[in-house]
Specification:
single chain; mainly alpha; Four Helix Bundle (Hemerythrin (Met), subunit A)
């Protein structure tokens, strides 16, 4: 179970990464994620506007992997749903999932940085 205030993070994996490579090295990955994520989000938004399901699911797959690599559990799980375009609930839910990703992105990244600062 994640420590209070960090439920949106994969703290088990983060702790393992911190033990293995250190919080400072992991923070470099977070910085790289922050540089790449806006492009993923913009591409998904454009694909949604264009009703391009293939582009939505493809870019969501990239976002899922990137978010998972830095322990952003909520963003990873929502992106996983967004990438699964063949699921029955996808047509009625994909815009909501993307909205949740964009709604929580800034706060989740800030929480991740705070968590790593505590570990550092």
């Amino acid at each position: 179970m994640a420590p209070a205030g960090y439920e949106q993070l994969d703290t088990v994996t983060l702790d393992q990464y911190c033990d293995a490579i250190g919080a400072a090295v992991l923070m470099k990955s977070v910085t790289l994620f922050e540089q790449m994520a806006p492009e993923y989000l913009n591409t998904v938004a454009s694909a949604i506007a264009a009703d391009d399901k293939k582009a939505i699911t493809s870019e969501a797959h990239k976002l899922k992997g990137a978010a998972g690599s830095v322990g952003l559990k909520r963003i990873q799980l929502l992106s996983e749903k967004l990438q699964c375009g063949d699921e029955p609930e996808w047509p009625s839910q994909f815009k909501q999932w993307f909205s949740q990703i964009t709604e929580h992105y800034d706060a989740d990244v800030a929480s991740l940085k705070a968590y790593l600062a505590e570990k550092g």
